[in-house]
Amino acid sequence: MELNPVYDPRLLSPSKVYQIDGALYQYLRQSGTSTNPRYVFGHLPTPGHKKKSDIVLNRTKLAIRCQEVVGMTSSISTTEETPEQLQLF
User: Fold this and answer.
1) Cα 59 vs. chain centroid, distance in angstroms?
2) What's the rounded Cα separation, in Å, for the pair 3 and 18?
3) Residue 31 near residue 56, CB atoms below 8 Å
4) What is the pLDDT of residue 68?
5) Between the chain's N and C termini, which has fewer beta carbons within 10 Å?
6) Residue 59's closest CA among 84, 42, 83, 34?
7) Helix (H) or strand (E) holding 65
8) CA angle (71 as vertex; 19, 28 as ends), nearest 5
């Protein structure tokens, strides 16, 4: 398994798999402000393991702790849970 460090957050993709602290994650979205961006990753559970919570990294932690797993893609589709306000007519 080949790992490449992630130094540029613009290269993050939801279809790629990332290793953070020994666990596999999928990139979900960017949050925070433009001056202080945060990157949200969802845990990819492996058979026999519990689902862990999502992890949020800033730019510095991303460069230190996140590595792309080369050749592995995520087939799990994720949906962002953003609340929507419905208007009644």
Assistant:
1) 13
2) 9
3) yes
4) 93
5) C
6) 34
7) helix 59-65
8) 50
Q: Per the structure block, which two tokens stand in for 85?
A: 């306000």
Pull the structure tokens for residue 23. 């666990």
d(CA 63, CA 26): 16
User: pLDDT tens digit string along 26-81?
Assistant: 999 999 888 899 999 998 877 777 777 889 999 999 999 999 999 888 875 544 44
The pLDDT value given to residue 32: 87
Distance CA 70, CA 18 (A): 9
Residues 30 and 13 sit within 8 Å (Cβ to Cβ): no
- Token representation of residue 56: 């949020």
